[in-house]
Design a protein that fits this description.
- By secondary structure, the chain is α+β, with helices and mostly antiparallel strands.
- The chain contains 4 helices and 12 strands, in the order H-H-E-H-H-E-E-E-E-E-E-E-E-E-E-E.
- It has helices at residues 3-24, 34-46, 64-73, 76-86, and strands spanning 57-58, 95-98, 105-112, 121-122, 127-135, 138-142, 149-150, 161-162, 169-173, 177-181, 187-191, 199-208.
- The strands form 3 sheets. Strands 1-10-5-12-3-2 form a 6-stranded mixed beta sheet, with no helix packed on it. Strands 4-11-6-9 form a 4-stranded antiparallel beta sheet, with no helix packed on it. A two-stranded antiparallel sheet has the order 7-8.
- Strand 2 (95-98) and strand 3 (105-112) form a beta hairpin.
- Helix 2 packs across helix 3.
- The longest helix has 22 residues, at 3-24.
- It is globular, with a radius of gyration of 19 Å.
- The protein starts with a helix and ends with a strand.
Length: 211
């Protein structure tokens, strides 16, 4: 194979990969470091980060390299999971609750899922959204980065998007899973599920994102 043929073959592979990405969608920040990805997966499975919290696990959509990296950079993650392990989240009154040893507060919200067209899109840059549904079931929409576009300027700490419904990935949350939305996770929360009861209790914590 001569040099021109090699270049054409490489371009064909790159084009095919681009088409695959377009077809499948991009729903989180890609990790191009395979060693980091492997280390993060092993770390998540080992579970030392739990600090006694075993009621729920990260959903399959959680970006594990981001989770691993942010946990290592910010000691408040450790305190968050320790608080979750020791707290009766169903007995807490709705409202804000300080998390001991941190500057964070947990927002305990009793609410109701709504129609998709009435729910807002968002992502954040300064803070990570930790979301844990402790009662009921909540549907999240994960926006495709290829077909979604900002529909206005960033205004700390939120930016909104236009999106295509048929390119959006929908995932239901149950009390045995928690979700973490990093800056690369553009999402919609509190969407109606297929269940009869749309009432939920969710714990939301804003965790500072460390560059």
């Amino acid at each position: 194979m001569n040099r021109l043929q090699t270049m054409l073959a490489a371009l064909a592979i790159s084009f095919a990969a681009s088409l695959t990405t377009m077809a499948q969608g991009v729903y989180t920040k890609p990790c191009n470091d395979k060693k980091l990805e492997k280390k993060a997966t092993k770390w998540a499975e080992a579970g030392k980060w739990r600090n006694g919290f075993d009621a729920a696990s990260p959903d399959a959509t959680v970006n594990l390299p981001e989770f691993y990296t942010q946990y290592k950079k910010n000691p408040q993650w450790k305190q968050l999971f320790a608080w979750l392990a020791k707290t009766d989240l169903l007995a807490l009154p709705a409202g804000q609750h300080p998390i001991p040893g941190t500057t964070m507060k947990a927002n305990v919200e009793d609410g109701e899922n709504g129609d998709l067209e009435k729910r807002g899109t968002e992502s954040h840059r300064q803070y990570v959204d930790f979301q844990y549904v402790v009662k009921g079931s909540e549907r999240f929409g994960l926006l495709d980065h290829v077909t979604s576009k900002p529909k206005g300027p960033y205004r700390p700490d939120i930016i909104n998007y236009t999106y295509e419904v048929d390119k959006t990935k929908f995932v239901d949350s149950e009390p045995d899973k928690f979700f973490i939305f990093f800056p690369g996770d553009w999402h919609i929360a509190k969407i109606k599920t297929d269940k009869e009861n749309q009432n939920i209790r969710v714990v939301v914590v804003k965790v500072e994102y460390k560059e």
